[in-house]
């Protein structure tokens, strides 16, 4: 059982601290969705305003007392902060509040651990969790910091329990890295095979819950898991897509969604999966057109693309969920161009759910795919691989 779900009721208090930054989520809407995705029930929310984090408690002692009273009032056994906490802040808060305290980073890691299905995905999440744990051992281990040594003990003379656990985690990190490297080599072999076949590679990227998997299914008539929730799918799936207008096949990949303040450990761990975006010939940047915060979400996606070295890959903006827009919000034209990071980028409006605009997207992909490079005989769409680097089963 996961650490977050160890409480029977799953009731949590959400806390956000406004430091005056423009992207602050004043309603804690996204944190609430993350908590629900992890199987928790937000029962109360509290917003604090500060110029800078308190070194000891992040929110200060007065606000910490308010949080404790709120947790007691609603019977919550856990408190989740929308920002990353230092190990010392997390330890101090737990002592002050008398309940378990987590931060946004841990919550995202927990969701990834629940959702990973492929061998590679599980290894990537495990690596990120181990790296997070290695820096947060101080949180719950103050009672184990006594010296251990002598006959029959695990460590040498004078070695503390926390040092032993840190060494054990370090060993686990090395083993996981070695296993992940083996899977990554398999993926690299598959990628080189596609390159030799002169395949035009397309990757779907975007903020989580923008509808990437739904669009992927609409394009290739697949049954990849898609749901109206954050991080519905983590594992990259690549399939062939036949474009009749170009008389050729292309390779299209559905990748993990991005989110604000995506933990760097996860970005590092998922670089093998995200390599599909780096090596792509075209990125389909899927945007939830119905979300009022979509400009900020687009900026977050661009930030991650820069971090993984995919910011120079050509993009086509796909504004999804057209069916969720009111008549007054619908665009005057199904296609146009907008500025993105100082460059003019083409944009297509569509609805993966209703199918409106999907044919126009296929036509645009056919226009961009170099048909003369490798015309192929039409065949049924077939799945190439999943994130485990092996053959994946086609949906029935």
UniProtKB/TrEMBL annotation:
Subcellular location: Cytoplasm
Record-linked SUPFAM superfamilies: P-loop containing nucleoside triphosphate hydrolases
Cell cycle keyword on record: no
Pfam families on file: GTP-bdg_M (PF16360), GTP-bdg_N (PF13167), MMR_HSR1 (PF01926)
Nucleotide-binding found in the keyword field: yes
Region (Disordered): 369-396
Main location: cytoplasm
Function (record text): GTPase that associates with the 50S ribosomal subunit and may have a role during protein synthesis or ribosome biogenesis.
Subunit structure: Monomer. Associates with the 50S ribosomal subunit.
Full protein name: GTPase HflX
Gene source species: Variovorax soli
